[in-house]
Amino acid sequence: MTKTRAAGRTVGGLRTLSLQAPAVTLLLLWMIVPLAMTVWFSLQRYNLLMPEMTGFAGLENYRYLFTDPALWTAMGNTLLLVGSVLAITVVGGTLLAVLFQQEFPGRGVARVLAISPFFVMPTVSALVWKNMMMHPSNGVLSWLAESFGLPAVDWFSSLPLTSIIIIVSWQWLPFALLILLTAIQSLDDDQVEAARMDGAGPVAIFFFITLPHLKRAISVVIMIEMIFLLTIFAEIFVTTSGGPGLATTNLAFLIYIQALLDFDVGMASAGGVVAVILANIVAIFLVRMVAKNLES
Amino acid sequence: MTTAKTKFPATAERMPPQAAGVSPLRSAFARRLGLTALGWAIACLIFFPIFWMVLTGFKTESAAIADPSLIFSPTLESYIAVQERAGYFKFAMNSVVVAFGSTLAALLIAIPSAYSMAFLPTRRTKGTLLWMLSTKMLPPVGVLVPIYLLFRDVGLLDTRTGLTIVYTLMNLPIVVWMLYTFFKDLPKDILEAGRMDGASTLQEVCFLLLPLTLPGIASTGLLSVILSWNEAFWSLNLTSSKAAPLTAYIASFSSPEGLFWAKLSAASTMAIAPILVFGWLTQKQMVRGLTFGAVK
């Protein structure tokens, strides 16, 4: 009896193994090989423009990287970009989720319009904003400002990082809205009704019932956005190319400059390792949270 | 009422008497009107850049950079120019091949894996799922250098095959996760009944599981198509002219030589239209995939 059960388990185990093998092997290759190469390159003297300079560099690349003021500028920009976009999208997304949860004529269509920017490819949203919205003389925003008698703003030269923040927030606000709207729908109507019967106003209901209910969904939104926002690239690539100066260079863009423009593989890899470590700090919390959810 | 824990005073005492002349019906109507106006105003504000882009695509180049106006004589000249001069269709084909190719590949690899996780769970299943999730959190910029060099050495740079491989692996964790949550929702008895009747694993999957979970598989596929279609880090870094998908083609409008807003708008409208429709269709199910089942 025990023997057959053990045999059954082995057969089951084999079946599981063969079914999962393709996905697991491919992901393992995708993750381990390039990551190991990045770590390896980061310890090498490796510049595509100077093929004669090779060999083990130890932590030299990291030393150059960490003493390079550009890294700290890029880190600061990354932090500012991620922090601002998170604040705007999470606060805005929560308020909009409450708004679009209310019953009103045409709510379905209004919801669809509001989540649409999330499905627009990043290069399109960046260029539409840069040209048609924020252009200093022909853009809609400057036209609006002028019709109110205000001076037009040259967005990308005077407020470069703010401009990027606006564009990225416009793309990610719908994401927060979409997730939080789904979460808010599982809110118990009876509970809200009971509170209202007891005389709670809309503000009290929001803070004491809605917000606690959304707590988990909000943290999921924060973590997922963080992981993607840490390495925003295309929006910067098509609008400012990291400039003026380094004003809009984030960590991802700095690595791109070092790798594909300066051909300094060693330095770029060291930067890549830093990016991976930063993302992993966030990822640990997210994975833990998902794991908890998997058990329930 | 006395036994219940009341946080708020009872309704009758709390409610202020209605102001003279305003019936409760009237104020409810005013509230509804205000809500509707606010909801629609915000939705239209968020959607405005997309609306404006679509409109600009039907203008002439000179009308596109003139003062913003809703009144103009629509023309298709930009749409025609985008195809005739830039060969829009070629880039669109690249997007279609890469997005659908990588989705098909990811589904084929993920279905057996998700099947075994949902129906033959072992002690390691949870760990494997979480590990797959963690690969998604690897910032692409961390592996840009090795992937670029590997692709250069094996001749995959600027090829559809190369981009398809990257997108397949990029979306594989999300596809496995989403399929897993859909498969798990299926009552186990149904597959068991099939097994009793002597169905093999392959028959079980093809004739029972896939037809029964088709809506879930379809929305998983659509999410994968959307993510690949809009991806702009790898497409900008790994392709140049031959295999460039729409994200990279649109990015070429960022060059400062002259303003081609109408053509940019026409090309962008065509590039985002199908994905917007896909997104609208699957917004509900998409939340599962985007949050790894953490928000339902």
From TrEMBL, chain A:
GO terms, biological process: transmembrane transport
Cellular localisation: Cell membrane
Keywords: Cell membrane, Membrane, Transmembrane, Transmembrane helix, Transport
Transmembrane segments: 21-43, 79-100, 112-129, 161-182, 217-238, 267-287
Membrane-related topology note: Multi-pass membrane protein
Pfam family name, one: BPD_transp_1
InterPro entries tied to this protein: MetI-like, MetI-like_sf
Protein name: Sorbitol/mannitol transport system permease protein
Organism of origin: Billgrantia gudaonensis
Organism phylogeny: Bacteria, Pseudomonadati, Pseudomonadota, Gammaproteobacteria, Oceanospirillales
Automatic annotation (TrEMBL), chain B:
Gene3D superfamilies documented for this protein: MetI-like
Domain ABC transmembrane type-1: 92-282
Protein's cellular compartments: Cell membrane
Topology in membrane: Multi-pass membrane protein
Gene Ontology CC: one annotated term: plasma membrane
Pfam families: BPD_transp_1 (PF00528)
Signal peptide from the UniProt entry: none
Superkingdom assignment: Bacteria
Chief place where the protein resides: membrane
GO biological process, one term: transmembrane transport
Protein's UniProt keywords contain Transport: yes
InterPro entries: BP-dep_ABC_trans_perm, MetI-like, MetI-like_sf
Entry keyword set: Cell membrane, Membrane, Transmembrane, Transmembrane helix, Transport
Membrane spanning stretches: 33-55, 96-117, 129-151, 163-183, 204-229, 260-281
Family note: Belongs to the binding-protein-dependent transport system permease family. MalFG subfamily.
Protein's name according to its UniProt entry: Sorbitol/mannitol transport system permease protein
Biological source species: Billgrantia gudaonensis
